[in-house]
Amino acid sequence: MLDGLLDLSFWGCIGVTLVLTHITIASVTIFLHRHQAHHSLSLHPAVSHLFRLWLWLTTGMVTREWVAVHRKHHAKCETADDPHSPRVKGINRVLWGGVGLYREAARDAGTISHFGKGTPDDWLERHVYSRYPLQGILVMAVLDVVLFGVAGLVMFAVQMLWIPFWAAGVINGLGHYWGYRNFETGDASRNLSPVGILIGGEELHNNHHAYAQSARLSNKWWEFDIGWLYIRTLALLGLARVRRVAPRVRILPDKRVVDLDTLRAVMRDRYHVLKLYGRKVIGPVICAERRGCDGAGRKLLSRARKLMTREDIALDAHACAIMNAALQHSQSLATVYRFRSQLRELWSHTASDGACRVERLKAWCAEAESSGIKVLYDFAAELRGYTLQAP
């Protein structure tokens, strides 16, 4: 009995544990996150219920609570109302105590009522999964011991720690603290790794915040989202239907006319446009200006670069003073920063209808190309070639 019904070797126990925890990760990213929270795909009822059953056994999480907390995170991101922002609550608290923050948010009836709409509400959900969340975990503990003996206790412990650490800690914590950004979103989200396997593709967190309703979290050709692979496999089997993915944009070098298609592509790719503008326009201008500066001037421009290219940084009085000093220091920098602000206005709430926005984009490109700043000219020419790629 010490060995359980399945007499596995040491490495066999490790392999089974990794498989079981990966199934849980897949259940969270496919069912809870992409299907329930964002409705980016539909699932066959049988598949949907299998995910619910597995999560009941391995996490004890209630679907409505998880969805509500996650939706509130998107709605209130990086504010005092964000359930788990490391910028507000501190990275150590979120990384190591993320599960506590989740439970605290899940106890708020107002959060659940407002953000938890549209989740399962059938007999099983009301009378089993939501009513007895801990009993599922106890069932899993018994199964682990019966099947794997004493080793099953260790395997069970790893299963119970897997989601609290990787999802509640690493994704909610490091995913807003460390990594690279493809998109200049207004929050601090980061991509932890271009290879999304260990956490089911959730490593591509900045991509998700840029296109929250996309079923595919990878965006660049060199990024891999294993959750998307599973979704495509389910779709091929007729067990899932993809509803939304992030738009694909391509650049036509010979396209010179700014039209409605150009506007739509720029609008849908706006977070990436801002990222490119910082890298291709503001960055080179600052580098050129630094060459002719003394030590104090170079330091000022270096500090201003981050403030001018990042959307997730709030400009307090000190930051504004740095910005103003840098803009007064360089006319070219003041020009390209003004163009950046004008570009952002294209998708602001104050902008008017599509035809008016097209005219604004035409005027922006024409003025940028006549600015006398080569990197700005090149960027405007590239923007003219923006078009949506057929799905």
Structure description:
By secondary structure, the chain is mainly alpha-helical. The chain has 2 domains: 10-242, no CATH class; 251-388, no CATH class. It has 18 helices and 6 strands. Strands 1-4 form a two-stranded antiparallel ribbon. It has a two-stranded parallel sheet with strand order 2-3. The protein has a two-stranded antiparallel ribbon with strand order 5-6. Strand 2, helix 10 (205-210) and strand 3 form a beta-alpha-beta unit. Helix 1 crosses helix 3 (63-75). The protein is elongated.
SSE topology:
Layout: H1 10-37, E1 41-43, H2 45-58, H3 63-75, H4 86-89, H5 91-106, H6 109-115, H7 123-129, H8 133-148, H9 150-173, E2 195-196, H10 205-210, E3 224-225, H11 226-236, E4 240-242, E5 249-251, H12 260-268, H13 270-291, H14 295-309, H15 317-329, H16 331-345, H17 354-369, H18 374-384, E6 386-388
What is the residue-averaged pLDDT? 94
Task: Give the helix tally.
Answer: 18
Strand order of the largest sheet: 1-4
Counted beta strands: 6
Main sheet summary:
2 strands, antiparallel
Distance between the termini: 55 Å
How many domains?
2
**What is the overall shape?**
elongated
Strand content: under 5%
Q: How do the SSEs run, as a string of H and E? A: HEHHHHHHHHEHEHEEHHHHHHHE
> Helical residue percent?
55-70%
Write a brief structural summary.
The chain is built from 18 helices and 6 strands. It is elongated, with a radius of gyration of 24 Å.
Please supply descriptive tags for the structure shown above.
single chain, about 400 residues, mainly alpha, 2 domains, two-stranded antiparallel sheet, two-stranded parallel sheet, 18 helices
